[in-house]
Amino acid sequence: MENLNNKVRILIVDDDIDDQIFIRKAIKDEHPNSELISFYNGMQVLDYMLKKGVCEGSSHQDPHIVILDINMPGLSGFDVLKVLKQNAFANTIFVMLSTSDLKHDIDIAFKLGADGFFTKPNVFVKYKTVVQQIISKLTKLSPIHIEGLVLNLDKELNRPGVTLVRKTYLAEKIKLLSEYLSK
């Protein structure tokens, strides 16, 4: 899928400056070639992503990953996720990062289309683990062997016009098929 030697654009949306610092440092430690853009509320990131406000007329590229805090003043991370998922950001991975680990919040996040949900760690070392898991969503899929047939998912799924959502869906279905056939 994504070659991690390339610059990865990551948007961080969190009203807590300390959390922003921890997330940014963990990302830079784990993936120094990343381009990080920070926002402190939902409206700022919507203006950026929907190319309004200060970004009007800009030709910025869509991010690879958006990390959203849930509880922010004004628009919540859920509100932001809902709007962005309705606006054709199929190649962007949306991850919720929250102090909450309530099943209700997790269910809402996935119902709205989040690609991941992580609880904010209480120590910096654990932020690195969370960041590794988030960035791993961009890594290449390994070939799958099904009774002599080798499917190189990276090659097959990177054809022009195949969206990230479609890639993820197909990869999961192929993995299930592989597991079923190997029984």
Question: Mind describing the biggest β-sheet?
Answer: 5 strands, parallel
Strand content: 15-25%
Low-confidence stretches: 53-58, 140-150
Radius of gyration: 17 Å
CATH class descriptor name of the largest domain: Alpha Beta
Distance from N terminus to C terminus (CA atoms, Å) equals 28 Å
- Number of continuous helical runs: 7
Net shape = globular
Do you know the CATH architecture of the largest domain? 3-Layer(aba) Sandwich
The CATH superfamily of the largest domain is identified as: Response regulator
Q: Which structural class is indicated by helix and strand composition?
A: alpha/beta
The helix fraction, in percent, is: 40-55%
What's the pLDDT, averaged over the residues?
79
The counted number of beta strands is 7
Q: What would you note in describing this structure?
A:
The chain is an alpha/beta fold. It has two domains: 9-136, Response regulator (Rossmann fold, 3-Layer(aba) Sandwich), CATH 3.40.50; 144-181. Helices cover 42% and strands 17% of the residues. The chain has seven helices and seven strands, in the order βαβαβαβαβαββαα. It has helices spanning 17-30, 42-49, 77-85, 103-111, 124-136, 153-157, 164-181, and strands at 9-13, 35-39, 65-69, 93-98, 116-119, 144-146, 149-151. The strands form two sheets. It has a five-stranded parallel sheet with strand order 2-1-3-4-5, sandwiched between helices. A two-stranded antiparallel ribbon has the order 6-7. Helix 1 crosses helix 5 and helix 2 (42-49) runs parallel beside helix 3 (77-85). It is globular and about 50 Å long. The model is unreliable at 53-58 and 140-150 (pLDDT under 50).
